[in-house]
């Protein structure tokens, strides 16, 4: 069981965003959003949303190293996490892996990689999605 | 709106209370508050109860029905209020609106959380529901991690230091040691904080509020009837609430909680007071950095000067604006749903002059600041001694 009890239908619905970094752009105000939003919070009914795929390039906006992990992430600790600002504007929260945590600073360039996030126990569902790594 | 006053206030001793359950805690706080208001209980028209995660922590929903039952208050209406860590503050505001509107005369506002019946990891998962479960916690973030993101940006933008954050914990432990109801009764040093276990850098164990059991309760009445129940009514002269994005990463800035700024601005307007007029206040220090940011967002100091304010002792018990005289969430403990109500209990005691060795001399106006999650909900209330 994943810590938050996020079930199969939820995981299924989130595949495009988690695997492909699909978000939304409001054609009215040109603001990009991640994850997908059906309504632009700025334009509301005047907005017109379309799906966009983000490049996966970005930089670290803020970061931490987690020493006290939540249930399901014990084997990863300590691990770096960041708020990543994508090149297209939206920010998201992700692990920063395959990198020396010492190289993770505010402004460090990073790019998306595809990884296992967590699993629902030994025989359960495996949840995949995005993590990021430092660009050398 | 009618004018509304607090006429009764009580709380349980906060801490890890293995001997008592949810029902015991809320019944004790509720009965003591009714007693404090010199009531029999028959006068009460409604209950508003704040609790965040009873469903995950004790497997029990429908908790205000339980509260009415165990306080012997059936058949009055009992309504649960949930806004993560701001559940208590929103319950207070809801009770204030109910009395202010004239719908009810006497209202009980309760807050409670029983957190130590489950293992710490399960409690952490339950608390994670205060953030964005799908896009923050699912990815491996924890609540300390979210506040670590805030701390790291504050250090980057304003030069705030880990030592300054540690000083918040030191001050709040010192205040808690003067509060018999506080979870922690021990004083600590900056060095103790600095060498405590790393949780989510730059935050260490002593930068974090603990997992606590506890309950708090208030009795509200129309001001014009308040003297029937108490010699010293504490008028609620403002109660204001605001919201922000659920996920921290969607905010334009991480170094200000816009919900605090908005709620405070509206509360000061409503009360007709300025930040300088506040004599004593309880702010939401779930992590030490949160108290530093609260100084700034509540207007006590300029943006970026919060670290300096704690270093200069401005918010100490004998400082310009004493903050968290109860010990705050850090020292007094953080039974999540109880916190917003407990803050108002402390301010009530301060304004009545009943806070003993932690009393702020001559305090007339007090403020409470209760935050949900990483800032998606904020409630600011302002109280004044009505004499």
CATH superfamily of the largest domain in chain B: Thiolase/Chalcone synthase
**SSE string of chain B, helix = H, strand = E?**
EHEHHEHEHHHHHEEEHEHEHHHHEE
The dominant shape of chain A is globular
Reported by name, the CATH topology of the largest domain in chain B is Peroxisomal Thiolase, Chain A, domain 1
Strand content of chain B: 15-25%
Let me know the number of strands of chain B.
Answer: 11
Average residue pLDDT of chain B: 97
Largest interface pair? A-B, 34 and 36 residues
Following the backbone from N to C, one meets helices and strands of chain A in this order, namely HHEEEEEEEE
Strand arrangement within the widest β-sheet of chain B reads: 3-2-4-7-1-8-11-10-9
Read across the widest sheet of chain A, the strand sequence of neighbours is: 6-5-4-7-8
Strand content of chain A: 35-45%
- Compute the number of structural domains of chain A: 1
Sheet/helix structural class of chain B: alpha/beta
Low-pLDDT regions of chain B: none
State the end-to-end CA separation of chain A.
Answer: 36 Å
Range of helix content of chain B: 25-40%
Query: Which of globular, elongated, flat, extended, rod-shaped describes the shape of chain B?
Result: globular
Structural class of chain A: mainly beta
Mean pLDDT across all amino acids of chain A: 94
Give the tally of structural domains of chain B: 2
Structure write-up:
The complex is a heterodimer of chains A (136) and B (387). Chain A has 136 residues and is mainly β. Chain A has one domain. Helices cover 9% and strands 41% of the residues of chain A. Chain A is globular. The mean pLDDT of chain A is 94. Helices cover 38% and strands 18% of the residues of chain B. Chain B has helices spanning 22-36, 54-57, 63-70, 87-100, 120-128, 133-137, 143-158, 162-176, 190-194, 223-226, 258-271, 288-297, 306-311, 328-332, 336-352, and strands at 4-11, 46-50, 78-81, 107-113, 198-200, 203-204, 214-222, 234-243, 280-282, 365-372, 377-385. The longest helix of chain B is centred in the last third of the chain and has 17 residues, at 336-352. Classes of the chains: A mainly beta (136), B alpha/beta (387).
């Amino acid at each position: 069981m994943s810590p938050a009890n996020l079930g199969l239908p939820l995981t299924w619905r989130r595949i495009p965003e988690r695997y492909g970094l699909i978000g939304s752009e409001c054609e009215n105000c040109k603001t990009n959003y991640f994850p997908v939003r059906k309504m632009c919070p700025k334009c509301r009914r005047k907005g017109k949303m379309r799906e966009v795929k983000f490049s996966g390039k970005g930089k670290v906006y803020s970061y931490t190293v987690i020493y006290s992990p939540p249930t399901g992430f014990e084997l990863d600790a300590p691990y770096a996490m960041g708020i990543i600002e994508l090149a297209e504007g939206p920010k998201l929260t992700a692990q920063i892996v395959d990198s020396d945590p010492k190289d993770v600073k505010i402004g460090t360039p990073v790019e998306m990689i595809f990884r296992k996030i967590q699993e629902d126990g030994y025989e359960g569902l495996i949840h995949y999605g995005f993590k990021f790594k430092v660009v050398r | 709106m009618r004018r509304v006053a607090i006429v009764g206030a009580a709380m349980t001793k906060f801490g890890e209370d293995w001997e008592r359950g949810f029902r015991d805690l809320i019944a004790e706080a509720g009965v003591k508050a009714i007693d404090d208001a010199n009531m029999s209980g028959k006068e009460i028209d409604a209950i508003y109860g704040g609790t965040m995660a009873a469903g995950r922590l004790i497997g029990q929903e429908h908790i205000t029905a339980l509260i009415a039952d165990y306080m012997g208050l059936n058949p009055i209406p009992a309504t649960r209020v949930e806004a993560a860590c701001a559940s208590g503050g929103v319950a207070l505001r809801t009770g204030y609106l109910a009395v202010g509107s004239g719908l009810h005369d006497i209202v009980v506002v309760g807050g409670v959380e029983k957190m130590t019946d489950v293992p710490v990891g399960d409690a952490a998962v339950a608390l994670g529901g205060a953030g964005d479960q799908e896009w923050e916690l699912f990815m491996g973030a924890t609540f300390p991690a979210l506040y670590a993101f805030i701390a790291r940006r504050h250090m980057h933008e304003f030069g705030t230091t880990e030592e300054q954050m540690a000083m918040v914990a030191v001050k709040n432990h010192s205040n808690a040691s003067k509060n018999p109801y506080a979870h922690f009764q021990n004083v600590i040093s900056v060095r103790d904080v600095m060498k405590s276990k790393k949780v989510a850098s730059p935050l260490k164990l002593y930068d974090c509020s603990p997992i606590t059991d506890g309950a708090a309760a208030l009795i509200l009445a129309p001001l014009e009837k308040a003297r029937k129940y108490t010699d010293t009514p504490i008028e609620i002269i403002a109660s204001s609430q605001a919201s922000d994005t659920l996920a921290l990463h969607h905010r334009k800035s991480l170094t200000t909680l816009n919900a605090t700024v908005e709620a405070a601005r509206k509360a000061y307007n409503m009360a007709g007071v300025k930040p300088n007029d506040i004599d004593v206040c309880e702010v939401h220090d779930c992590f030490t950095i949160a108290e530093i940011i609260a100084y700034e967002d509540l207007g006590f100091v300029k943006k970026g000067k919060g670290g300096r304010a704690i270093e200069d002792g401005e918010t100490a018990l004998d400082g310009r604006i004493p903050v968290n005289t109860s010990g705050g969430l850090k020292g007094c403990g953080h039974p999540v749903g109880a916190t917003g109500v407990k803050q108002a209990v402390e301010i009530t005691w301060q304004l009545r002059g009943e806070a003993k060795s932690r009393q702020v001399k001559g305090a007339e106006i007090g403020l409470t600041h209760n935050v949900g999650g990483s800032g998606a909900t904020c409630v600011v209330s302002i109280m004044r001694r009505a004499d």
